[in-house]
């Protein structure tokens, strides 16, 4: 599941957390480099002599900004998927912990154990499953009894 155990009381570090932090760092470096290139004046100024040159500069600008928007969109999509996976993993971990807490509480408190048993016995699926298990157990015991009686 990609979970790294941490010290008691701390939240576990998941792989998706590392991915999100890495992508955010890469995005920050990308934006910082873009600003640095502009601030240092490495982008040469252009003189437009012919009307066709203006269209060429505009097309270059459009392509450049499109690449930036696509990169930002890809980064946001990956971050979104990583968050969704992290929330799903977190939910599974919380369910496991809560179920363990319920089992511990049932072992220590008879009243809650009886309440849980009563609630379970009101569920049709649980009743049918108990019937199936009891029938199979009775049949196996009956077969053992019949085999021992005939031998």
What is the structure about, briefly put?
The chain crosses the membrane at residues 12-41, 61-84. It contains four helices and two strands.
Average of the residue pLDDT scores: 80
State Rg. 32 Å
Q: In which range does the helix fraction lie? A: over 70%
Order of strands across the widest beta sheet? 1-2
Shape: rod-shaped
H/E element order: EEHHHH
Structural class: mainly alpha
By DSSP, the count of extended strands is: 2
User: In total, how many domains does the architecture comprise?
Assistant: 2
Distance between the termini: 54 Å
List segments where confidence is low: pLDDT < 50 over at least 5 consecutive residues.
1-6
DSSP strand (E) fraction?
Answer: under 5%
Number of helices: 4
Q: What does the main sheet amount to?
A: 2 strands, antiparallel
List the helices and strands and how they pair.
Elements (H helix, E strand, L loop, with lengths): L2 E2 L8 E2 H25 L11 H58 L1 H12 L2 H27 L1
Antiparallel strand pairs: 1-2
């Amino acid at each position: 599941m990609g979970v790294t155990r941490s010290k008691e009381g701390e939240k576990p570090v998941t792989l998706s957390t590392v991915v999100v932090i890495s992508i955010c760092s890469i995005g920050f470096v990308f934006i910082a480099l873009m600003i640095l290139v502009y601030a240092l004046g490495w982008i040469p100024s252009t003189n437009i002599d012919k009307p066709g040159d203006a269209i060429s500069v505009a097309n270059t600008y459009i392509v450049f900004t499109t690449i930036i928007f696509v990169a930002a969109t890809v980064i946001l999509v990956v971050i979104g998927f990583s968050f969704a996976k992290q929330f799903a993993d977190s939910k599974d971990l919380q369910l496991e912990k809560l179920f363990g807490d319920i089992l511990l509480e049932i072992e220590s408190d008879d009243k809650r154990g009886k309440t849980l048993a009563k609630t379970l016995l009101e569920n049709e699926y649980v009743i049918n499953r108990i019937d199936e298990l009891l029938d199979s157990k009775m049949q196996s015991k009956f077969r053992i009894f019949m085999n021992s009686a005939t031998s």
